[in-house]
User: Fold vitamin-K-epoxide reductase (warfarin-sensitive) from Oryctes borbonicus.
Amino acid sequence: MVSVRVLNVLFTLASFVGLALSIYSYVVEQATEHDRNYKAMCDINEFVSCTAVFKSEYATGFGIIPKFLGKDSIFNKPNSLFGIIFYSLIIIFAQINSKPFALLILFLNILSIWFGIYLAYLLAFVIRRLCVVCVATYLVNIISFVCSYYKYKKLSQPTPVKIKSKKKKA
Assistant:
């Protein structure tokens, strides 16, 4: 089985990729807000367009917060900011090798998988666009979840107790 150290490295790498994707998303959102002619690298055609997705009503507060707390709510921020916070926390928490932190990370990753399923549904059936940055983020979340699952499993195993034998003096 893979060691906790290797899982931490994989976890951290995946989280840095997720962080980079979230920062890129935020930069694209800000650029399109200030420049109507801005063309992002992830805009391939009308169907494959990150910008179209980042401009949708679901790009802030996951499309949920504005409905319940209003568009002016302090919590109604771009999804990419939530991603930046999420991946930053995961990078920090992944370095702590304790069962409670491993469980916390596993829980956070389960939430990210559920949000990913929700957002993928919106992409496919509501927005009807393909966002390569979004799909890459979903893949990062799956990798992160798998690592967190195995890390929690590994840290939950009982540690073998070494018994010292007494040597008799002759």
